[in-house]
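Hi W., the S-(P-nitrobenzyl)glutathione complex you wanted:
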Amino acid sequence: MLKTKGEAPVITAFESSPDRGRGLARDMRVRWALEEVGQRYEVRLVSFQAMKEPAHLALHPFGQIPTYEEGDLTLFESGAIVLRIAERHSGLLPVDVDARARATAWMFAALSTVEPPIVERSMATIVERDKPWYAARLPMLDERVRTRLGELSRRLGEADWLDGAFSAADLMMVTVLRRLDGSGLLEEHPNLCAYIARGEARPAYQRAFDAQWAVFEAASQVRTPAAPEG
Ligand code: GTB
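Structure:
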């Protein structure tokens, strides 16, 4: 099994992300968390084929990204990874135990209440677009997302963050909501758009975004080599 090199944890990310550098894959939230706490990290890029091979399956039982290797510890599931980072460094979870429990509840809410209808809609737009039922199904999927966005928007109100200061909960929620980019659904809630923009404006977010963008750009150059000079 691959181990952490030196002191830096190693994460995995798509060698060639289908999101074309938009930072929508789940390594983005792990990168962002590591950047927020100032932890240097290394990235091992994996192909779709390599994700299903024994070496990667030993790290991730479902053959996905991201994974996280820190010394003898190997983790999968982006929520568990971000929680580990937040627990081991200051800055991503409140010190007060009750406030910490509330932030953790919001992390779970992002992953298990808000993300599923968003992923279901997103997957349908990719794999069901040419199916005969798509036109009837999409409004239903939109409505499920709308319900959650309305509830979230009401709770957030005019606050900057979900519960006091920025925390891992906001990091998680912002990355979940970003997957709706281009759907037109977020625009129905200006406070959610402003919330996402606040997250994206954080220097740590930008460093994480630039890092995953660099992977996409490097892969594009391999796919379309520059014309020879002269
Ligand atoms: N619950 C797990 C977690 O939170 O870590 C889910 C992990 C997961 O779904 N990983 C995806 C994966 O490895 C990548 S992030 N898929 C390959 C496979 O299952 O074989 C999901 C993702 C993929 C692509 C886009 N996109 O193109 O916009 C967005 C999100």
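The chain has two domains: 10-91+204-223, 97-202.

W.
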